[in-house]
Amino acid sequence: MLNPSKVDCIKILSAARELDGDAMLPLDPRSLGLTRNAMETAAAFLIERACFKRHRDGDGHYAVGGLSLQGKLRLDQFVNG
Description:
It is a single chain. By secondary structure, the chain is of the alpha+beta class. It has one domain (6-76): Arc Repressor Mutant, subunit A (Orthogonal Bundle), CATH 1.10.10. It has four helices and three strands. It has a three-stranded antiparallel sheet. It is globular, with a radius of gyration of 11 Å. The N and C termini lie far apart (23 Å).
């Protein structure tokens, strides 16, 4: 698997951080300002590392829930170095 860029991961994690309760964020590359490949690579990377409370994927479409503790730590790590 390719390593995603920090910027791509930050975009997805920041968007998921804004979710309330049990809401799910459908990951759309256009709304995130990413290419489809970049979004899929970053989403797979973050899902494998348990960064979200829950996730859904099917037919190449991803949706994620709010950030888990791991996701919050990962976002802080990406942003602060």
